[in-house]
């Protein structure tokens, strides 16, 4: 018997070929880098898993509803970021500041755009980075205090991470619903075929990361 033939059926399932864009960006601020490290990959996986699971249990209309909801949540966060960026840019102009800082350890971010919602979240990360640059400029020029800057950095970073966590929670609920409706094995095999974990990732790691980042920022301020 050949090695292939002896493998279990689930191991022989063909991986799905999905369309993606790969876009490379330079990310400067530590806050945007942390969002990429802690939230981006998990968000991308969760959005794809939601689509896989809901189509299996015959709720394609729900996929559209969730996509619309996710897009709305990201758009609202983007609007808040943009408004704060405009406010700080005005403060910068009012103080006659024209300089922009460079960063000691910028990162190259290769974004794999597997859905329109992922594209939206990537733009959200880039907008966060732009906001942090303006904020850091004002801090370096002594327009805003060290205490205010640390608190604002953390607030905006965690705002994006909480948004990503909400979407991960949607995946967990969809996964649980599929099992409750008797589609457990079908979902498990489809997740394997799509290169996903059999079970959705837990949120505790992200929550612990945000606590660690809070402690790190506070320590850095001392």
TrEMBL record:
Chain intervals for the UniProt region annotation (Disordered): 179-222
Biased composition (Basic and acidic residues): 182-191
Record protein name field: DUF1845 domain-containing protein
Originating species: Methylomonas koyamae
């Amino acid at each position: 018997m050949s090695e292939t033939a002896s493998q279990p059926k689930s191991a022989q399932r063909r991986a799905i070929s999905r369309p993606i864009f790969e876009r490379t960006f330079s990310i400067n601020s530590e806050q945007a880098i942390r969002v990429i490290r802690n939230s981006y990959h998990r968000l991308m996986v969760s959005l794809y898993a939601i689509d896989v699971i809901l189509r299996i249990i015959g709720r394609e209309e729900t996929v559209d509803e969730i996509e619309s909801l996710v897009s709305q949540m990201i758009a609202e966060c983007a609007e808040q970021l943009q408004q704060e960026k405009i406010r700080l840019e005005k403060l910068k102009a009012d103080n006659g500041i024209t300089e922009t800082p460079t960063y000691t350890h910028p990162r190259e971010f290769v974004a794999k755009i597997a859905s329109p919602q992922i594209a939206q979240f990537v733009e959200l990360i880039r907008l966060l980075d732009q906001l942090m640059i303006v904020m850091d400029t004002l801090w370096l020029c002594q327009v805003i205090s060290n205490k205010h800057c640390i608190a604002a950095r953390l607030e905006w970073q965690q705002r994006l991470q909480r948004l990503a966590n909400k979407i991960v929670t949607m995946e967990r609920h969809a996964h649980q619903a599929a099992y409750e409706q008797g589609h457990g094995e079908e979902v498990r095999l489809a997740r394997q075929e799509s290169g996903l974990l059999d079970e959705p990732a837990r949120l505790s790691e992200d929550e612990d990361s945000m606590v660690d980042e809070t402690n790190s920022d506070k320590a850095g301020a001392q």
